[in-house]
Write a structure and sequence with these properties.
heterodimer, A: 81 residues, mainly alpha, 3 helices, 2 strands, 67% helix, elongated, B: 163 residues, two-stranded antiparallel ribbon
């Protein structure tokens, strides 16, 4: 089954369909939630950022894995010699 | 007799196709996975281990005693104590680089086994072709380095605990 939910620009995946935008919004909302949650428990700005960078990379990884399997597949003969 | 001569003449005048043997070397060698897609995913797979190793090297080797780098260790050791996500540390530092190696190797490697002599079936030729894709090779090398560092850390830890 071909799913064209995302398109790839370099190492980043951009949404290209409603489902893609939904997943992007979900990931963004979760990132904001983790930032607020970490900020509540931290004692300084650097403490917030230290924990948030790790979480952001993990969220980015999950988002990219989903986008990898649901992206618009390029023509292998045209792109990958 | 006349027919035979005509036939021989016809056969002599037949145009033989001009075959260039060097052209037959150019075969399509498709890899299993797309190289650029694998590289894009590979960057994300090794982003967290690279960030962690950067913190380790800055803290212990370059003696940059900043709270930012020290906090990364406490973050990962804190993850190991939380019951349902205690597996996250080894996955991030070991499994993700291994996955990165696999997908990037599959995207640049082409393996072909073929018979070179039709009469002897056991005689076979193995052709391994590696496409020179810079980013895929760089990602494979970085992932191998991460796995090597992680394995050597685990080995030294187990040795020091025993002794």
């Amino acid at each position: 089954m071909k799913l064209n939910w995302f398109t790839r620009k370099g190492i980043f995946y951009l949404p290209a369909a409603v489902a893609g935008w939904f997943i992007f919004a979900l990931a963004f909302a979760y990132a904001v939630y983790t930032f607020i949650d970490i900020d509540k428990r931290s004692h300084s700005v650097s403490d917030t950022l230290i924990n948030f960078v790790f979480n952001l990379l993990i969220i980015g990884l999950f988002y990219t894995v989903i986008a990898y399997f649901t992206e618009k597949r390029p023509n292998p003969a045209a792109t990958d010699d | 007799m006349k027919n035979n001569d005509e036939f021989l003449k016809q056969m002599e005048n037949l145009k033989v196709p001009d075959v260039n043997p060097s052209q037959h070397q150019n075969t399509v060698k498709m890899a299993i996975m797309n190289a650029s897609r694998s590289a894009a995913l590979g960057v994300w797979l090794i982003a967290v281990p690279c960030y962690f190793l950067l913190c380790v090297f800055m803290f212990y080797f370059f003696h940059v005693r900043m709270g930012w780098f020290a906090a990364m260790f406490s973050l990962l050791s804190g993850l190991a104590k939380i019951p349902f996500i205690d597996f996250l540390g080894p996955i991030v530092l070991f499994v993700l680089p291994i996955v990165c190696i696999i997908i990037n190797v599959l995207s640049i490697l082409h393996v072909q086994v073929k018979n070179i002599d039709p009469e002897r079936r056991k005689v076979k030729e193995l052709n391994i072709t590696i496409k020179v894709k810079l980013w895929n090779i760089v990602l494979i090398l970085i992932s191998l380095a991460i796995v090597f560092v992680f394995i050597s850390y685990v080995m030294t830890e187990s040795i020091s605990i025993k002794s």
